[in-house]
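<tokenise_the_fold>
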Amino acid sequence: MAVMAAMTKVLVAGDDGPARPLEGLDALREALANGLRLWVDLDTAADAHEAEEVLADVFRFHPLTVEDALTPQPNPPKLDEHDHYIFIVFHALGAYEPFGEVATQEVCLYLGQRYVVSCHHGPLPALEGIRQRCLEDGLPLRRGPEWLLHAILDRLVDDYLPCIDDMEDALDRLEAEALAGVRAGLLERVLRLRGNALRLRRLLVPQRELLARLSRPEFPALVRPEANIYFRDIYDHLVRTEYLIEALRDLTDSALNTYLSVVSNRLNEVMKVLTAVATIFLPLTLISGIYGMNFAHRVWPPFESGWGFPAVVGTMAALGIGMLLFFRRRGWL
């Protein structure tokens, strides 16, 4: 009897009562042959060989879908229809650190008439709450595979909102720092937030279309009509999340413009001071240049006089002080 690894979790549910776990590939084959409601959760990073055996040999899924489920490289979100099941690629959000890069985790889902198979590369904490609920009262697996699929997708979509809220809070702090004149690493953090918003939008658009298909009676053999409206609810959540991301993109552009405006204003202040200093020294340089020419005759004040040099220096100092006072009175300095 083949024994499944600890990272392969199988639940079976009847018409009433809580779900119960199954052990062994033979028990899985028997439950599948008997038409029991199944949820098979596979961690492909823990045991790729067993995951391939379950997907290819037990369920006999299409090789291209098995390849997508087993590869660690991310695939774009999509929904593919096959003869007796649909294959979904969805992206869950990982833990988000302020000003860090958004980490996503691909989740591949198979929906059949009597089963749901979920595949992910590494642990996925978002599914643990659903699994515990199934073990306690059998729901949502007991109602049908489409309800379990709804619970999984709803949980994954709900994780987007806390991440967006954290990004908005981080953006508010960046705007405050920009107005306060803090410049160290500010531009890098603003651009990272903007990149995160763009990445989330690229994920949400195809996932929104995916859920739009599930909310329509496009798969009547797999999704009962009474379940369509619940997928529509998830679709509405994604639309609202997309609006929030668009607003976040606009806010990042605003924060970037605020930062650039502050930098430009500071540069203008510096240039104003340097221009005033250069303007003050311009006539002084002219006087010193004329008086320093190598002509001994017809130069006033005369070189030989004892008061000539102090008189020129005094004139230059008075002229410089006068120009400085004039600039300060006009508010240019």
About this structure: Strands lie at 8-13, 20-21, 37-43, 78-81, 85-93, 104-112, 115-120. The first helix runs from residue 25 to 33. Residues 42 and 119 are 5 Å apart (CA to CA).
